[in-house]
C-alpha cells in the first residue's frame, strides 16, 4: 500500500524520528558527494496551486538528488482555468503516468483530498492554514543540528499563529517529540481552538519567550488577513517583533527560526534575521534533505 504524507498530526513518533534521521544521513551523502541509492527512477508531479520559492525549489533539488524525473504543474495555464476540477486534474496526471505527487494548495484539507484522489505516493507541500509537514521536519533537523537534540526544549512559536500551517505542523511534531510548545501573539492572531492544539498560549511576548531555547517567528500573512485582525502592522511590530531587545528574555543560547518568506522589519528585524544565532538559512538548506527523505519514504511504502 502507498504511503502518503499529508500531516504531521497523523504520524507516530517513530516515523517522525526515522524521517529526521534519514534526512540527516541523506545530507551527509549529498554533502560528501556519495552516490545515493534510491532504487527505481520515479516520475513525480510537483503541483503548486499557490506560490512558493523554498518548497518548490527544494522538492526539485530533492528529486534531482534521488534521480527522479519531475513534471512541474501550476494552476495558471492549465485546464483548471476552463473549470476542470481538482479531482479530474489529479486523475488526468495519474493516467499520464506520474507515479508520485507533491501538492501545495490554498485550501485547508486539500492535501487529504488530493492524496485520496491520487491513491498513490503523495507528499503535501502545504495546504491552506492546515499543515506544512515537510517544513516541520526540516525545522526539527535544524534544531537537532544547532542544539544537539530535539526533545526537552522550550519552543516559542511567535506571531500570526492563526493563519500558519507551519505553526500547526511544528506544534504537533515538537510536542510529539517531548518539547514544551508555546504559542505567542495578539488575541486576534491566536486561533480560538488552541485547546485542540498542543501548546500553551501567551499574549505577552516577554512571558512567551522567557527562557525559550528556540524562538520561531511566523510571517504576518497579510494575504490571508481579514480586515480588522490588526489595527496596524506598526503596533504588531512594537509588541511582538523579534529583535535583539526582545530576545533578551529568551535563553542566552536560544536560536531564531523563521520558515520564510520574511517580512523584514515587521515580525523580525534585520539584525536578528542575520545574527549568528539565526538558523533561517539552515532551515532552507535542510528543506532539501527532509524532502528527499519524504519522497523516499512514500515510495518505500509500495514495497512494505
Ligand atoms: N516556507 C515556505 O513554505 O516557503 P515558500 O512559500 O517559499 O515555499
List descriptors.
single chain, 304 residues, alpha/beta, Rossmann fold, 2 domains, five-stranded parallel β-sheet, 10 helices, 10 strands, globular, binds phosphoric acid mono(formamide)ester
CATH classification class of the largest domain: Alpha Beta
The gyration radius over C-alpha positions equals 19 Å
How big a fraction of the residues is strand?
A: 15-25%
What's the oligomerization state?
single chain
CATH superfamily of the largest domain: Aspartate/ornithine carbamoyltransferase
Helix content: 25-40%
Mean pLDDT: 94
Question: How far apart, in Å, are the first and last alpha carbons?
Answer: 7 Å
What ligand molecules are bound, each kind once?
A: phosphoric acid mono(formamide)ester
Secondary-structure arrangement, i.e. CATH architecture of the largest domain: 3-Layer(aba) Sandwich
Structure in words:
With 304 residues, the chain is α/β, with parallel strands linked by helices. The mean pLDDT is 94. The relative contact order is 0.17. The strands form 2 sheets. A 5-stranded parallel beta sheet has the order 1-5-4-2-3, with helices on both faces. Strands 8-7-6-9-10 form a 5-stranded parallel beta sheet. The protein starts with a strand and ends with a helix. It is built from 10 helices and 10 strands. It folds into 2 domains: 148 residues, Rossmann fold (3-Layer(aba) Sandwich); 147 residues, Rossmann fold (3-Layer(aba) Sandwich). The structure holds phosphoric acid mono(formamide)ester. Phosphoric acid mono(formamide)ester binds next to helix 2. The site of phosphoric acid mono(formamide)ester has 10 residues, from helix 2.
Amino acid at each position: 500500500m502507498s504511503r502518503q504524507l499529508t500531516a504531521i498530526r497523523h504520524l507516530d513518533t517513530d516515523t517522525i524520528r526515522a524521517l529526521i534521521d534519514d534526512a540527516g544521513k541523506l545530507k551527509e551523502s549529498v554533502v560528501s558527494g556519495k552516490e545515493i541509492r534510491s532504487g527505481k527512477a520515479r516520475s513525480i508531479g510537483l503541483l503548486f496551486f499557490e506560490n512558493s520559492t523554498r518548497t518548490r525549489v527544494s522538492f526539485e533539488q530533492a528529486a534531482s538528488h534521488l534521480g527522479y524525473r519531475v513534471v512541474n504543474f501550476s494552476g495558471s495555464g492549465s485546464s483548471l482555468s476552463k473549470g476542470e476540477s481538482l479531482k479530474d486534474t489529479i486523475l488526468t496526471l495519474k493516467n499520464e503516468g506520474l507515479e508520485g505527487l507533491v501538492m501545495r494548495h490554498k485550501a485547508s484539507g486539500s492535501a487529504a483530498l488530493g492524496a485520496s484522489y491520487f491513491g498513490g505516493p503523495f507528499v503535501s507541500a502545504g495546504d491552506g492554514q492546515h499543515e506544512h509537514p515537510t517544513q516541520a521536519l526540516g525545522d526539527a533537523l535544524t534544531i537537532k543540528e544547532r542544539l544537539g537534540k530535539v526533545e526537552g526544549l522550550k519552543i516559542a512559536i511567535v506571531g500570526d499563529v492563526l493563519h500558519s500551517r507551519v505553526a500547526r505542523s511544528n506544534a504537533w511534531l515538537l510536542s510529539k517529540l517531548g518539547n514544551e510548545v508555546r504559542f505567542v501573539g495578539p488575541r486576534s492572531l491566536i486561533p480560538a481552538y488552541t485547546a485542540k492544539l498542543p501548546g500553551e498560549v501567551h499574549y505577552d511576548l516577554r512571558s512567551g519567550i522567557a527562557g525559550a531555547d528556540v524562538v520561531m517567528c511566523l510571517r504576518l500573512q497579510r494575504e490571508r488577513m481579514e480586515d480588522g485582525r490588526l489595527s496596524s502592522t506598526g503596533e504588531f511590530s512594537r509588541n511582538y517583533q523579534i529583535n535583539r531587545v526582545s530576545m533578551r528574555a529568551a535563553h542566552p543560547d536560544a536560536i531564531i527560526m523563521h520558515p520564510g518568506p520574511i517580512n523584514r522589519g515587521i515580525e523580525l528585524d534585520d539584525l536578528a534575521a542575520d545574527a549568528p544565532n539565526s538558523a533561517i538559512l539552515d532551515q532552507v538548506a535542510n528543506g532539501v534533505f527532509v524532502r528527499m527523505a519524504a519522497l523516499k519514504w512514500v515510495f518505500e511504502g509500495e514495497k512494505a
